[in-house]
Sequence to fold (367 residues):
Amino acid sequence: MTKSVVGSAPGRVNLIGEHTDYNGGFALPLAIPQRTTATVTARNDDLVSASSRASGMDPVEFSVNTAPGDVTGWGAYVAGVFWALRQAGHEVPGANLRVDSDVPTGAGLSSSAALECAVLVALDTLAGLELEPSTMALLGQQAENGYVGAPTGALDQMASMHGRDGHVVLFDAARGTAEPVPCDLDAAGLTLLVIDTQAPHRHADSEYGARRQTCEAAAEALGVPSLREVQQEPAETILAKLDDDVARRRVRHVLGENQRVSETVELLRAGRIRDIGALLTASHVSLRDDYEVTVPELDVAVDAALEAGALGARMTGGGFGGSIVALVDTARASLVGDEVHRAFARHGFTAPHVFTAIPSAGASATA
Ligand code: ADP
Ligand code: MG
Fold:
């Protein structure tokens, strides 16, 4: 009998905590209802044959012993998972693999992590590996870093693995842990809008690399392995030790953003969801002015959402395009969406896509 397993994993949005993960800091993502499934059937040989229903993604075939460079394009995310599993010493069989998804790609909702995690949980069950969710998240990150060649942190995979209905996920990058924090938006009469600006990612990869490098160099100048190590000290003391203005602003964002995540978690634990709005907006201002990763579409969307009565709004994801989140009273949700549409029309931008992010369950597999 041929054994088949369906792995399913969600996309995510990040509520707050941006550009902190690769600095050993904190982030607060949530899994969204949009998911990717990977249906995996074991084969008797060492080959993997993978197809996706997404348009423009041609089928790929590779060996389970694949190495970085063998497969490029979308198949690299899948091949990367096989590679990462084998690098970690796990035996995985050849397989036929079919991917289906309603996570939009390239919108900052982490379709890449959803794909990796769907494949990971499916292979985990198929091969009887019984890996911990956090272990799988780190393997997904390795696939993306070492095989696809994108130097991203583990936030996306952690969110996809650890999501829970009615909760956000507190990710501590230094400790590699993820913890659910209650965030029942519905009960509070609130809606978290995601507004995909449709702005093309401009220089996202090179700029992301540059931000990472600046932070790493600043940590080195401060004599610590990562900026996390100086989080407890007063920010002014730390900033005074840096002689470069750009580095100072980048570090100020990272330290401030970690602080904002902690404050958000405290408010959520106290059931004060409405009150996190100001922290979301402060995060955006810091990403715009100090970290310099926004583009006009992101800034216009945030400003329009706030003008229409959003409690808080910020870009989400790496920036240079992608989406914003806006926390709004549910009664005002459509008004806020309309106002962003109008503002985009005034600026001559492509019409945005507006939808609702509902904190949802993480990855799982069924045999
Ligand atoms: P994001 O993760 O923000 O959506 P990325 O650029 O990191 O954007 O990842 C998008 C890429 O992931 C796509 O270009 C594609 O290669 C791959 N991918 C994601 N979802 C699918 C899918 N359902 N089928 C095939 N490839 C996918
Ligand atoms: Mg991605």
Summary: Residues 36, 52, 54, 57, 74, 77, 99, 101, 105-112, 115 surround adenosine-5'-diphosphate (ligand 1) (CB under 6 Å). The first strand starts at residue 4 and ends at 14. The chain has ten helices and 13 strands.
